[in-house]
Design a protein that fits this description.
This protein is 29% helix and 37% strand. The protein is of the alpha+beta class and 139 residues long. The chain has a single domain (2-138), classed as Jelly Rolls. The strands form two sheets. It has a five-stranded antiparallel β-sheet, covered by helices on one side. A hairpin with a 2-residue loop joins β5 (100-106) and β6.
């Protein structure tokens, strides 16, 4: 069993940004020389997330609207009262979606569904430099 750890870095603009990272993770897997195992994709931080969706404009818009229903920007958050940083809703949204996803791979190929892509979602209110950790465990 071998473990390989890689990183994807990006700058975000703040606000809800949904970014397809499927291709980057596939490329990292291809260069890993692993054939069978698990890929874990993790974003450190409490105002961003990774998940899977069908990455198409309609669903991206629907996801953005759903996040606003789950934790509206204009609601009162105790976090904002304490820290005055205006991102209480960002923390709540990220906690519902979680910071990681694990995807099996076989024959050096991610085992995603036909319409399933891996996405990073920025939820903070300000631009950030993000590092996504991609760890492969397998043979």
């Amino acid at each position: 069993m071998t473990t390989k750890t890689e990183h994807i870095t990006m700058d975000t603009t703040g606000g809800v940004q949904i970014i397809d990272i499927t291709g980057e993770v596939r490329k990292l897997l291809t260069t890993s020389d692993l054939q069978e195992g698990l890929a874990t994709v993790f974003v450190p931080g409490s105002t961003a997330t990774v998940t899977t969706i069908e990455y198409e404009p309609g669903l991206v818009a629907d996801m953005t609207k759903a996040l606003d229903r789950i934790a509206p920007k204009n609601s009162r958050y105790e976090h904002d009262q304490r820290w005055h940083d205006g991102n209480g809703h960002s923390h709540i949204r990220a906690s519902f979606l979680k910071p990681s996803v694990t995807i099996p791979f076989s024959h050096n190929t991610l085992m995603l569904g036909t319409w399933q892509q891996l996405v990073f979602i920025e939820l903070d209110v300000r631009p950030r430099n993000r590092t996504i950790i991609v760890q492969f465990i397998g043979d």
